[in-house]
Specification:
228 residues, mainly alpha, Arc Repressor Mutant, subunit A, Four Helix Bundle (Hemerythrin (Met), subunit A), three-stranded antiparallel beta sheet
Length: 228
């Protein structure tokens, strides 16, 4: 029998700090709270009507994962993306994405293959081209289907964590869903390699596709820096 007595207050406080962290993380990633915004324990506590203790813990976690930086004893601010962060994030992202896409392809059915090809056709239709809401919906389904058959849950969790950084950077620096002919051809090559279960091909095209997105972000980041 355990001699450890339960500490319900501590557990409740931890849960409150985690909830607050999740709220702040989501708002930062969605760009509701922009880079450079000041984050003080006092202001966060007042805004969300909590004590300073969970506010302090939530801000410490944001600092730990790189979404905030310390500016004082009890103050932080939302991180401003750097060239190093963008490079590191997208180098890891294409490796993870290629790996999960390949593992997913090994378990994919012919119905999955047909749906991927159908989605490409739907996205390329003239009536879809200017319907941004529809394009976003179809694009999300397309990318989700490419990796949904990956049976490695540890890898899924790693990609989910890194996906937060990618989504943050894309929300900050991508004005809209990309419609270029280059992206369209890359998507078709990805599907071709997926259907063939071609690991080498998937690694190559994933790297080209994702690092091209990185370069677009870096060019916009550089433009912002140059305009300051």
């Amino acid at each position: 029998m355990s001699n450890i007595e339960p500490v319900p207050d501590l557990l409740q406080r931890r849960n409150l700090a985690e909830q607050l962290y999740e709220i702040l993380e989501k708002r930062i990633i969605n760009c509701e709270i922009l880079p450079g915004t000041k984050l003080s324990e006092e202001a966060i506590a007042d805004t969300y009507r909590v004590s300073r203790s969970p506010a302090r813990e939530a801000l410490a976690e944001l600092e730990r994962i790189g979404l905030a930086v310390r500016t004082g004893a009890r103050e932080r601010m939302v991180s401003t993306p750097t060239e190093e962060l963008v490079n590191d994030t997208f180098e890891i992202w294409w490796l993870l994405d290629a790996c999960r896409t390949y593992l997913s392809s090994l378990n994919a059915s012919e119905a999955d293959h047909r749906r991927l090809l159908d989605l490409l056709e739907e996205i390329d239709r003239p009536e879809t081209h200017d319907d941004n809401e529809k394009r976003v919906r179809l694009s999300k389904e397309f990318h989700a289907l490419l990796t949904c058959r990956c049976a490695n849950r540890q890898l899924d969790r790693i990609q989910e964590d890194y996906g937060k950084y990618v989504n943050w950077l894309k929300t900050l620096y991508f004005e809209a869903l990309e419609k270029s002919e280059t992206a369209r051809l890359e998507h078709r090559e990805i599907v071709d390699c997926y259907i063939k279960r071609d690991l080498v091909g998937l690694i190559g095209i994933a790297r080209v596709h994702i690092l091209r997105q990185r370069d677009l972000i870096l060019s916009r980041l550089s433009g912002e820096s140059g305009s300051v």
